Request: fold
Amino acid sequence: MSKALLYDSTICIGCKQCEQACATQNKLPYNDAIAAEEIQSDHKMTVVLTRNDRFMRRLCMNCNEPSCASVCPVGALQKTALGPVTYDASKCMGCRYCMVACPFSVPKYEWSKLIPKVQKCTMCPDRVAQGKQTACAEICPTGATKFGERDDLIAEAQKRIRDNPGNYVDHIYGLEEVGGTSVLLLSAVPFETFGYRSNLSKDPMPMLTYRVLSHIPDFVPLGGMVLGGIWWITHRREEVALAEGHKPVAEKKNGRKP
Amino acid sequence: MTFRTMTSPATAARTNFKFTFWKLVFLFLMAAGLYATVIRFTQGLGAATHLSDQFPWGIWISFDVLCGVMLAAGGFTLTAAVHILNIKRLHSIIRPTILTAFLGYILVCAALMFDLGKPYNIWHPLIMRNPHSVMFEVAYCVMLYTTVLALEFSPIVLERFNLQRPLKVVRAILIPLVICGVILSTLHQSSLGTLYLIVPEKLYPLWYTPLLPVFFFLSAIAVGLAMTIFESSLSSKHFGLQLELPVLQELGRVLVVVLGVYAILRFEDLANRGALKLALHPGYEMYLFWLEISLCIIFPLALLLQPRVRSSANGLYFAAVLVVLGFITNRMNVSITGFEGSTGVRYFPKWTELAVTGAIIAAGFALFGLAVKYLPIFPKEEAEEELVQEPAGQSANALPDVSPVMEHAGD
Reply:
């Protein structure tokens, strides 16, 4: 079954241990200066934001039907059955369409490197495959970030809202956004406060392009037939005109017709 | 068209060579481009561009790729008109049009080598396939269509060297080749619009529409026609050829219809989506929207609907330039302006980005000039005297008044 993360910002104390654990797990540098950066970047895959004494994590949502994986021309990004959306730098050619397409603007690029790669949280795919928790969930001292089965976590999130309706905005972010994500968020204040988009469709984004793309196999033989047919007719006219002995006047008439 | 013998053009070029204004401009652009290229490939994208995590696609995608492919659309429009619709009168301008298209696609591929983070992996889509990706489809179509264009262009080279056997082969497969070219072009011209269908929450509603693929395709046809008018007019002045005015008038009429259809669809779509009020909502986006609409719809239609303008060489030329500039603005709006609101950052290209783009355009002009000089691009009877006597670079000098718009002809 699909794994997920539930982050309950009302329990978070903003200790940023998840940031540090994430950096260690992904072999990225981490120090006080980096801890102070409140923005996801090529060296910071998850970030704890602070707004008016409220905390909120930002990380890759690991969508159920990710835009990034759908747009990647070489399949460097993949949604795994367990939940994580993984990235294979050796396949990547650096077109950066994933960065344009991501509805959460998550993938970041190593702009300063000569051989750059995309950086984003991949939900610790190796750990998850071994049956372990993600690094951020394992380290979390308060249980604000919790790892588990997606269905169980949804039930738990709903229960928390039901039990303490005053504590939460009545919304599980990630339950339905872009067809659901493997990261679920609870908050006491509107999610827009932390830059989460509220205008996202409930339908998976990849359908927007696939609806068009899926017509191509039909279009090719049809287009070939129509064009071939037109060619046949226009050239037949010319042959007939020649055979009937007058100069190809017909072509002038054709010429008028765009 | 018959094979044209050249009276040692190399000698002619050498004896005539001197530094003219346009040659200096060309050398300056190439030098700046070379310097920028060194920065790009020794220090990376960060040092060479103003791209950022918020703005991952800049002018190399917006102009060099999106506009480049659009400006090369004359290739499929004209081959379809001549070979499929059998409009023989257009035959005389088909070679320069195919040359423009072929050069355009080569330059698009060159620009991609700058923009891709790992250009040496550009061949990956060949073996790593993701049929759900629009980018994958565009990559395949552009690759295949460049091959088709190379084959459509090959008779010109084969004639030059009098290689009769391969010439026969190419001529035998010409019609299937043209049909493939039209299908591939239809697919990827529209797919460049489809690329943006996946970002409804990021792209400003004046430009985001489910009809993006239709608009990109229609405007490619309009620009294909406009570029053909533009480049025929320029060539006739440059290379002293007789202007095929009746042919251009024909294209002008078709252009009116295409623009009309585009205009109606564009505004119907805005109205249906309730985005029309944004067109009157003062702001950055509104101004650039009306700049685009004025250049690609209002002014050209106002001009071309007057028979007096439509039948004059200068009127057609001016209208064509407007259409080209208008749809360049459109592509820039879709890919840059439309994103600035949602990303919260303003993007303006760094000098290195502009230098590379400038060098690519300059290379386009130089290659066009060289091809005209050494290959039978224009019909023999009109071309011979002028071409042999006057090298292309020098005759460019005769037209300083058109210089700003010439920028886009080679792309």
